[in-house]
TrEMBL record:
Record carries keyword Nucleotide-binding: no
Keywords of this entry: DNA-binding
Gene source species: Micromonospora sediminimaris
Cross-referenced PROSITE patterns: HTH_LUXR_1 (PS00622), HTH_LUXR_2 (PS50043)
Protein name, entry field: DNA-binding response regulator
A Pfam family it matches: GerE
Biological process annotations from GO: regulation of DNA-templated transcription
Alphabetical list of SUPFAM superfamilies matching this protein: C-terminal effector domain of the bipartite response regulators
Domain HTH luxR-type, residue spans: 136-201
Keyword Isomerase: no
Domain of life: Bacteria
MF annotations from Gene Ontology: DNA binding
Coiled-coil ranges per UniProt: none
Amino acid sequence: MIQLTMLGEPTVIRTLLAIDGALVRGALSLVLAAEDDISVVAEVDRGDVVTWTIRTRRPDVAVVDLDLVEGLPATDSCPLLVLAAPRRAGSLHRMLTPSRTVGVLGSDVPPQRVVDGIRRLSRGEPVVDADLVLAALHRDSPLTQREAQILSLTAGGAPVSEVAGSLGLAPGTVRNHLGRIIRKTGGRTRVEAVQVARDAGWI
């Protein structure tokens, strides 16, 4: 489907693919190459080059993995079509800001859904995956505010003594909280608890 400008000239949607995984990225690139109104102007597989690529290649839409786009400045970006697994749905709220145009789709949707999403975003239309929204709504955090504080500090590499000092708690109290946090997240270690909480958007 070719879009036309007001002068009747065809519009080609310049698209960036920022996807971690050569197989998936290559397959999607082939699908997009078959579309007359979409041109892939760049492909990247690292989050640290997404901003630079957007600035230099000036895409109209960027299709990005959630893992690669976290930390991208909201004020220096084109419209983003974010692909996220349902287990990461809770992290999507970090991407949604008034200064950024974002569409979201599940990472396992058929390629044609991505094609349609690119076109809709380029026209300023919303792109929302209902399954991801439902997954996010059912991932309310089981952590208390204090537990979230402790886990956030732990995620930054702070030892128990430092966490205790910064929150005015006894080290034993912090250890007790960490034990409850591990049970609530279903992890086996603090590292796993941090990963589960980050994936779900709890911290």
